[in-house]
Amino acid sequence: MTNNKPLVSIIIPCYNHENYIQNSIQSVIDQDYKNIELIIIDDGSTDRSVDKIKEMSTYCEKRFENYVFIHRANKGVSATLNQGLSIAQGKYVSFCSSDDSYHPEKVSRQMLFLQSNPKLNCCYTLICFVDEYSNIIESETELVNSKLNVSISFEDILKFKINLPITGMFITKYIRDKLGGFDETLSAEDYDMNLKVAQESKICFVKDRLYNTYLQGLIGS
After folding, report:
1. How far is CA 84 from CA 38, 68, 90, 109, 113, in A?
2. pLDDT at 3
């Protein structure tokens, strides 16, 4: 631990996001929470993603308590996330898509929330939709966040009334051991995980926009 603060593992699964991956990495470097392990797994990218990641390796090695970069053949996003979980050393874990980015206070705000609510297994944040120039798309952002300000149930997710954002921070043992990680037989791994979480845990939010997701990236993924 650094200054008695728990280690947080952040996993970035990357696939063909050469135009975004450095911004994703930089957003983790810029976190005001210091005790972070960064795990990047490139899932067989065919563009220049690997080169872009390697360009930042020196910065990552200096910044993080532990830095892991793995480049291997394509296995799919669920297998990539599970590989990251299998080597994560942090008490807590969070994920960042390789075309998304964190607000500088995301980790610290979620850590404070979880430490203030020790019975919780996870918490989420609100989200920002941004364009390729990082300008907030207010209409889309307001719409998605308006649905996250209510009590979310298993039924809400099952019937597609609510789609939990990928902003969660989890107790690592909870998502890895109790929930069993991500189902590698499914293509909708996020939907399946959301159902698992809603069935097992109370869903709570830090009511601030602490995760940027690129609308163009979502459409093009």
Report:
1. 10, 9, 11, 23, 24
2. 61
